[in-house]
Amino acid sequence: MPLPVITHTRPVVPDEPMSTAAAARLTGMSRHSIEKIVGGGYIDLIRSDVTRLGQEPYIGSGGTLPVIQTDVAEEDGTWRPYTGDALWLSDEDWLLAQSGDWSGISSKDVVEAGYMAVGLGGMVTGLVRVNGRAAGAPAGKIRWNLSLVGRLVGTLRDGQLSFGKDVTPTEAQVVRLTVGMRYAVRRGGAFTWI
Fold it and tell me: Which residues touch 169 (CB under 8 Å, ≥6 apart)?
């Protein structure tokens, strides 16, 4: 008896739209994380972008690098124009959005670390240098004096990076090794350590 001829009735289309739930299953990430990354403009809900995100490795540094776990950028209008993270923010606005006002972390530990990663939905979107505490934070909050090391300013697919002034070759290499990669999201606050 001959074997039947098998055909593909629905081929995989690289730019096929996906639901948030399907993207979460494909990447092993939560729907909430996917919504944040999409909301920040770093990926589109299409198969090729989601597959790329799912192929990015998880990174760590032995618990020595603090990560600000932000939300999608929104207008603030106080001492800074925006809070949160999105690729469409200018470098200046993005840096101000990460500067404060934060709670739930030891300022001394962050200053001693010297650097902070910025994360959105479990994906590292940038790296900042911590130059110390900044004045002006409300009671119980922390504000930092930060400078840009590097950040993703295009989609994950494009991989376009922006670097700050006076970035050393070693710092630039760390940006290339971390930005766009995933980290294990921890609930319960705006900060985690990887």
Answer: none
Q: How far apart are CA 172 and CA 164, in angstroms?
A: 9
Which stretches within 10-117 are classed as H helix? Answer: 20-27, 31-39, 47-55, 91-99, 107-113
Handedness of CA 108, 113, 114, 119 (dihedral sign): negative
Residues paired with residue 80 on neighbouring β-strands, in sequence order: none
pTM (two decimals): 0.90
- Which residues, at least 6 apart from 55, have a Cβ–Cβ distance to it below 8 Å? none
CB atoms < 10 A from the CB of 98, how many? 24
Q: How far apart are CA 46 and CA 128, in angstroms?
A: 30
| Token reading at 8 | 């593909």
Q: Which residues pair with 85 in a beta bridge?
A: 72
108-131 pLDDT, tens digit per residue, is: 888 899 999 999 999 999 999 999
Rounded to 5°, angle at Cα 192 from 190 and 194? 150
